Amino acid sequence: MLVEIWYFARIKEAVDCEHEKLELPDGNPTVRDLVDILSQRGENWRKALSDENLLVAVNQTVASMQTTIAEGDEIAFFPPVTGG
Amino acid sequence: MTVKIQRQDFDLSAEYEALRRDSRSPGAIVTFTGLVRDTSKHQLITAMELEHYPGMTEKSLSAIIDDARARWDVDQVSVIHRIGRLLPDEQIVFVGVSSSHRAAAFSACEFIMDFLKTRAPFWKKEFTEQGSYWVDAKDSDRDAADRWSDQG
Fold this sequence. Notes:
heterodimer; A: alpha+beta; Ubiquitin-like (UB roll); 3 helices; B: alpha+beta; four-stranded mixed beta sheet; 4 helices; globular
């Protein structure tokens, strides 16, 4: 199943990627499963996605590592927000 | 309710007038304007870059405004946040709230700012003579947002 992934701020810089579409194995994968797949790409990916402050959103709503991902979902990884 | 994410600057008096015009029976209008600081950790800031998550930003700001409306009797709410490259002393954020009474307008304006800082997906990068840095989230901002949950 195809999902869309966005990376923001220091996460985007660490993995040198802003946006991608990725084919995930079917079978109700969780955000944790996605992180495990992405982490295999290299040390910069593993480090950026294992940051204890890492935030994740699924379909533009804050989610957790246990959140289940479905076909067509938009997933985003980003650090704690600093606007205002 | 208006939420605007924009590169261009805004005119405080025009925003104030819009709130005054659109409100039904305003007894009070409270506005807050945030400016880009010129120093950070004792370093001079030469510029700031504001990144955001299009779509989720608008969604989260609307949710914050809805939360404020559930707590206080507010009339109009207007939020503007700038993105892109900004220079020290430039206006970066605006929150305006109208209400029949000042207490609700003051509280709602502060509540919206506190949650904008801790929930809305914006990220600041500061540029100094020594290099550029992503700004770290502050505990004091988290504490400011947390105190609202103690008040029921």
